[in-house]
Amino acid sequence: MSIPLLHVDAFAAAPFTGNPAAVCLLERARDAGWMQSVAMEMNLAETAFLVPRGGESQAWDLRWFTPAIEVDLCGHATLASAHALWETGRLPKGATARFHTRSGWLTCTQADGWITMDFPAQAALPCPEPAGLMAMLGLPRETRPQWVGRNAFAYLAVLEDEALVRGAQPDFTAIKRLPGLGIVITAQGKEYDFVSRFFAPGAGIDEDPVTGAAHCALGPYWAARLGKTSLIAYQASRRGGVLRVQVLDSLRGKPETSQGGRVLLSGQAATVLRGELF
Q1: 77 with 152, same domain?
Q2: Segment 172-187, tens digit of pLDDT
Q3: Which domain holds residue 234?
Q4: CB-based contacts of 259: which residues, under 8 Å, 6+ apart?
């Protein structure tokens, strides 16, 4: 028996940009050990596994695995999953994709070539700066972050200049010793509302190319700081990717509140490869 598998570049206006994900289209649930082995074999930032949810129209169970671990929330592989369902005809064009996940129900819609995901906010709370943070990031020791916070996934450090974000040369071994998956660094942008990078060696990914889940924290922070709820973001990895971020009004002005809040994340996607897993 063969299993359909797609390689999709998410948050990508064209192939070979954005963040690659594998999407495995299953007919029945498989055990976690098998899924972890497949994700390790794919060796992409994430592999998504979709199983039709019995008795519920246009709904799927969705799980995400890095090459090393299963994660609770992943934006780019969710976007890739919705794209794969529409492209293969498993979901009619224009229909809403509904996913049951470890982070609750997530939905995806499409319009004008963009896919919009409705995600839970994961705002970071202020916390002490980790010792040696600038050295971990490969930045001058005299540099100080404007703000440091943390949520359930990672640290968030706000830097004073976009050039510092782009110029960081992280020590992944040191960052891996931090609690959680790693650290997001961000600054106000020149061309975009804000830019960021995400170093996640705790998840087996030294630098994630474009990270939807990180924007569940970045969105509330920058919405409050900039006084606007609709933002354009750029994740400044080598591959790079643009996201539209909308923070719902319930979070406006409350960067430290995530209970019940939602963030809408929009991006584009391109299929690079279709194949079969034996």
Answers
A1: no
A2: 999 999 999 999 999 9
A3: 125-260
A4: none
The pLDDT tens digits of the residues spanning 102-147 come to 999 999 999 999 999 999 999 999 999 999 999 999 999 889 999 9
- Which tokens sit at 58? 């246009």
CATH classification at residue 137: 3.10.310.10
252 pLDDT higher than 60: no
Pairwise CA distance, residues 221 & 72, whole Å? 21
Q: Whole-angstrom Cα distance, residue 155 to residue 57?
A: 38
Q: Are 233 and 218 in contact (CB under 8 A)?
A: yes
Asked, for residue 103, whether it belongs to a domain, the answer is: yes
Q: Is 46 assigned a catalytic role?
A: yes
Q: Considering the candidates 46, 87, 160, 207, report the single residue annotated as catalytic.
A: 46
Judge if pTM exceeds 0.90. yes
Residues 25 and 53 in one domain: yes
